[in-house]
Amino acid sequence: xxKDLRGYGRGEQRPNYESMAQNAMNSANPxxxxxxxxxxxxxxxxxxxELMEELMRGKSSGMIDEAKLNDVAARIAPMLxxxxxxxxxxxxxxxxx
Length: 97
Prior knowledge:
By secondary structure, this protein is mostly helical. Helices cover 67% and strands 0% of the residues. The longest helix is centred in the middle third of the chain and has 15 residues, at 30-44. The termini are far apart. It has five helices and no strands.
């Protein structure tokens, strides 16, 4: 049977996202977690302009593979809000120039 959001109002239990996130953290590779934490610390304080400059430098130096970037964008697009999707499209378009 197909599920929809209306079903949650009739006693169906919603997924426990906090538990899912904790399970993912517990099963994740510690080195990957450290790498992700380092990236968040490095990029977290940067402005949108600084982030875009970093992406453009990565593209021009060959560090960013366009096919892989397109794959990542395609995989995350379904999870984005319309506003986020619009922003992703704008960033991808700028990187294609």
